[in-house]
């Protein structure tokens, strides 16, 4: 039993940190109606990691993470400004295009590389069960720095998310704040994409926020409810994955699917009760 807790400590703490961080970002993303931005940024981070892999740069090193960050920063700049330059096309459509192009480029780049298919699979599914203390420390530092920025300017970020559709254009400070938002989200993604995987990151961002929105109108309450749910489900999925020796990312995502279904059922019964 002591061996179990020793092995699970770092992955469980990583799950808790990511659950809370992505629940916060998820509430904003849901309010802004840019659901796929996290998936797109995660794919750009994965593309940077794939370029590093082909260049034979050791993964989880400064060089690999610098490439991932460069792709994410380019995406953050693009997303922040393209919304005002192109108003006839929904922002979500442009984000989706970036995702599918990034995914296709990753496949083309790694196509002839040794173990390329395995590399892509690992990026999608992740390996959070194998998180070590060094990786956990790095993740903690990044999330702490991002949290300080968002806490310092919390009123501004919440106001911009609530009024996202009413932004007037590049003549105001909205693009700059959008860039800060996307970049800070991207920093957390870069620090976690290798371990959590693209699918789990997207799930942690969206499912808790959606479940919170089913029961609460306030963004703050949505975040609180989503964070609690996310912590419970992600850690439970982690334990199930370990006990039954199944792919961690797939198990945790499936657990979130069950949690979402349960939330829908509960919400439906509440609606019947209020009639």
Helix and strand arrangement:
Layout: H1 2-32, H2 37-54, H3 62-85, H4 91-110, H5 116-125, H6 133-152, H7 154-162, H8 174-196, H9 198-215, H10 219-244, H11 248-273
Structure, described:
This protein is mostly helical. The protein has one domain: ABC transporter involved in vitamin B12 uptake, BtuC (Orthogonal Bundle), CATH 1.10.3470.10. It contains eleven helices and no strands. It has helices at residues 2-32, 37-54, 62-85, 91-110, 116-125, 133-152, 154-162, 174-196, 198-215, 219-244, 248-273. α1 (2-32) packs parallel to α6 (133-152), α6 (133-152) runs antiparallel to α8 (174-196) and α10 (219-244) crosses α11. The longest helix has 31 residues, at 2-32.
Question: Mean pLDDT, nearest integer?
Answer: 88
The CATH class name reads: Mainly Alpha
Helical proportion, percent range: over 70%
Q: Examine the coordinates and then state which fold CATH places here, giving the name of the CATH topology.
A: ABC transporter involved in vitamin B12 uptake, BtuC
Strand content: under 5%
Give start-end ranges of low-pLDDT stretches.
none
Number of domains: 1
Order of helices and strands: HHHHHHHHHHH
Task: Output the CATH homologous superfamily.
Answer: ABC transporter involved in vitamin B12 uptake, BtuC
């Amino acid at each position: 039993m002591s061996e179990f807790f020793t092995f699970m400590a770092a992955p469980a703490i990583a799950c808790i940190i990511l659950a809370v961080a992505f629940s916060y970002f998820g509430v904003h993303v849901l309010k802004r109606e840019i659901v796929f931005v996290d998936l797109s940024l995660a794919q750009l981070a994965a593309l940077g990691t794939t370029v590093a892999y082909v260049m034979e740069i050791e993964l989880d090193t400064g060089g690999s993470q610098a490439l991932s960050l460069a792709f994410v920063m380019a995406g953050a700049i693009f997303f922040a400004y393209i919304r005002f330059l192109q108003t006839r096309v929904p922002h979500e459509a442009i984000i989706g295009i970036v995702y599918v192009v990034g995914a296709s480029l990753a496949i083309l780049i790694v196509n002839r590389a040794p173990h390329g298919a395995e590399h892509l699979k690992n990026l999608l599914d992740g390996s959070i069960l194998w998180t070590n203390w060094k990786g956990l420390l790095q993740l903690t530092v990044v999330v702490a720095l991002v949290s300080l920025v968002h806490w310092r300017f919390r009123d501004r970020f919440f106001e911009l998310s609530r009024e996202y559709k009413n932004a007037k254009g590049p003549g105001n400070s909205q693009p700059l704040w959008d860039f800060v938002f996307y970049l800070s989200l991207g920093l957390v993604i870069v620090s976690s994409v290798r371990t959590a995987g693209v699918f789990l990151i997207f799930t942690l961002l969206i499912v808790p926020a959606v479940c919170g929105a089913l029961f609460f109108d306030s963004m703050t309450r949505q975040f609180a409810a989503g964070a609690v749910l996310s912590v419970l489900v992600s850690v439970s999925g982690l334990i199930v994955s370990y006990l039954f020796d199944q792919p961690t990312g797939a198990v945790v995502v499936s657990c979130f699917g069950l949690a979402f279904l349960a939330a829908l059922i509960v919400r439906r019964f509440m609606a019947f009760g209020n009639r």
